[in-house]
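It would be a great kindness if you could assist me with a short task in structural biology. A protein sequence and the structure tokens that stand for its backbone fold form the material at issue. I should value your view on which stretches of the chain appear to form regular backbone elements. The record follows directly beneath this note.
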Amino acid sequence: MTRPLVVKVTAGMDAPERCSQAFTVAAVAVAAGADVSVWLTGESAWFALPGRAAEFELPHAAPLPDLLAGILAGGRVTVCTQCAARRSFGPDDVIPGIRIAGAAAFVDEVLADGVQALVY
């Protein structure tokens, strides 16, 4: 059994390499069978909206829509409540399968037994 992995993504188009690294690590972990939870915060919150991942480009990197689809297929994606509110979107606006939740839910996940957490 693999340990759960929580990946907190803080970067978006403002820091494309960090952003791509976070999504790549999460997608590879899902493909390896890990229990993966990705939290979109700050500028990465935009990728919860339909079509936004397709706007992301980084040479020599896997397409962000493919990485996100892989994560959603076998893991969980959550957008920070405050980050969504600051960007004026809510639960009805996000890609199906993505939820919006707050800091208490994040802390619960990170403090669970055996969890590994990464922040990008």
About this structure: Residues 5-119 form a domain with the Hypothetical Protein Ychn; Chain: A, fold (CATH 3.40.1260.10). The beta strands are 5-9, 36-40, 76-80, 98-101, 116-119.
